[in-house]
């Protein structure tokens, strides 16, 4: 539990640093962003492994609540980061599968903590069973569409994204484009910037997918 | 995966078509074996510390000439008895050069609003002392000149005081020789990014004529500066009078030949080349090749090779940018040419690895010739292992046989012939290993420390926190921790070795880990190429220490 809290704290801190590094003079520093993303990934792994251990015997209530403060905090970062000018440096804005973490390991972790929202979970796992990790960000996309002030029951509104043949990212890019182009203001090139802008935002729910997307996204500066 | 080397870049605004009366072109090859001789007579003794120079020709005149930030040195170096030191003698303070106090007071009295304005783009430099933070220090090849760059884009060059019979003790002091604004803040309109004017690196070229040349770089642009002296001026023009006003031709009755008369020594700095628009990411290193015709500039993902004469083209020799940026796992953190072999260079990565590349192998040196990596010690594995293994500096030894790397907690010396592990590892401040989390919170874990060799490659030096810096003697295996601080820098002071207490019991002179000041860090140091004189940059102060062995 302590470990989880610590990991969570570090993740929040990293997100905060990531956000602030965008505002500093001289623009985004690639090396620093990379280091922050590494820390976030380590924190995520720690968090997940601690969670798996904690939840094997127990009732999963605490974890359900724990993402909330982070969610709330991340929301603000999200909103502002979204409006930030896109970083024009990356040629390929499409997020892709996480390199290292297979979706399978997260599925059991996800399954455990939310018996109260069974329907969501099931849908989630079914999507994951499709072997499509990119669906996780789609969940986030869905979430965003409901509005910034929405409560934390995001997964309720999840709709399965259209199936894709080639892989997660073209679909993800399209989904994100649709969802976020309206939210980005004054961005010169909306489509390519939609993914990068949202990439830096942490997703809200669930914690694992949040980390998943976040870590993936952050590396993609 | 490879991007083709860029054929050309937009030509920059350099005024490289030099007039023929300038000194010999940079890049004229000299025999590699000849030492960098100074063909001109030794520069004269400077008069007392001089008034700030007017903006040099070619520099931007957007901002008015500002006071050089450096005062004359305080106190004179003291002859001292030799105390126990690091094996090679004890260290005394030669001079401490600091920011004028009126500037500091001004910024302290400001209210919040003004400070906000001053922090914005194109702020007024006279307020922000942050602009005086030294960001690089470098001796030239003879050690006679010492260049510093700061966050405000200024370069200040110090010259060593010449030895004289009258003032024996003044030898070894460095006085201001030249000050100029090297880089200005810029704005990249395409990316909506501000480009900082902070000088990331300065590298000297070996001296080939009476003028001095140095390269200075900020995040995006490298500039070649020529620093030359002028001590004569022509007098006796026919068409102009002494103030430069045109004379009425009717009043001219005789014809005379202008003669050169001595004048007060003036040091001018002119930008001779501007190498711009070649880097997408932030430049972290530059290195002059031993052929003196080319140099390289390295950013996070690419290394470019330039010829000094050509400013609108550069060759990309290393490109580690992945096709998909999400696959990015490491960036280049430092790069340097081999001191003698003009075909070899090394670059370090954020993963703690060093690659030696040979430019003869192929045009694009993505495949290394040697790969130096130490396997990670699993017992030291922690949450922040990846960050602290990132190499912040890499330096070849003067002999060319060894390379030294600095990561967050250690300095390592590698033999070029052995790739699987370093031959020596020195712990700089291992007591911080348990504090990594707090250091992550206050951002100190991202600090990039530099490291330097002494002239004979027997001692290595690097900085730490609390204004401490450390020296390691490779032969005797002794090390010492010294402090560069205002409190301890009395004019006749010998530096007392410091000690950080790790365990419970703190002895009288020791300082405990928790009372270290992490805002006072020494990131940049330099060692004279042949003597035991070191320059240590502590925020906005420059300390020069000399080894005094009787």
Keywords:
heterodimer, A: 221 residues, mainly alpha, 10 helices, globular, disordered C terminus, B: 550 residues, mainly beta, Methylamine Dehydrogenase, Chain H, four-stranded antiparallel β-sheet, 4 helices
Computed CA radius of gyration of chain A, to the nearest angstrom: 16 Å
Q: State the shape of chain A.
A: globular
Name the CATH homologous superfamily of the domain at 99-105 and 128-225 and 276-547 in chain B: YVTN repeat-like/Quinoprotein amine dehydrogenase
- Main sheet specs of chain A: none
Overall average residue pLDDT of chain A: 54
Which fold name fills CATH's third level, the topology of the domain at 99-105 and 128-225 and 276-547 in chain B?
Methylamine Dehydrogenase, Chain H
| Oligomerization status of the protein chains | heterodimer
Q: Please state the structural category of chain B.
A: mainly beta
The span between the termini of chain B is 60 Å
Strand runs of chain A, count = 0
Write a concise synopsis of the structure shown.
Chain A has 221 residues and is mainly alpha-helical.
Question: Layout of SSEs?
Answer:
The complex is a heterodimer of chains A (221) and B (550).
Chain A: H1 2-23, H2 30-55, H3 61-65, H4 67-83, H5 103-111, H6 118-129, H7 135-145, H8 168-180, H9 190-199, H10 207-219
Chain B: E1 90-97, H1 101-109, H2 112-119, E2 134-139, E3 145-150, E4 154-160, E5 174-181, E6 186-188, E7 193-195, E8 201-204, E9 212-217, E10 222-235, E11 259-275, E12 285-288, E13 294-298, E14 302-307, E15 310-319, E16 332-337, E17 344-349, E18 354-358, E19 370-372, H3 385-388, E20 393-396, E21 402-406, E22 410-415, E23 424-427, H4 436-441, E24 451-453, E25 459-463, E26 468-473, E27 479-483, E28 500-501, E29 511-512, E30 524-527, E31 533-538, E32 541-548
Parallel strand pairs in B: 28-29
Antiparallel strand pairs in B: 1-32, 2-3, 3-4, 4-5, 6-7, 8-9, 9-10, 10-11, 12-13, 13-14, 14-15, 16-17, 17-18, 18-19, 20-21, 21-22, 22-23, 24-25, 25-26, 26-27, 30-31, 31-32
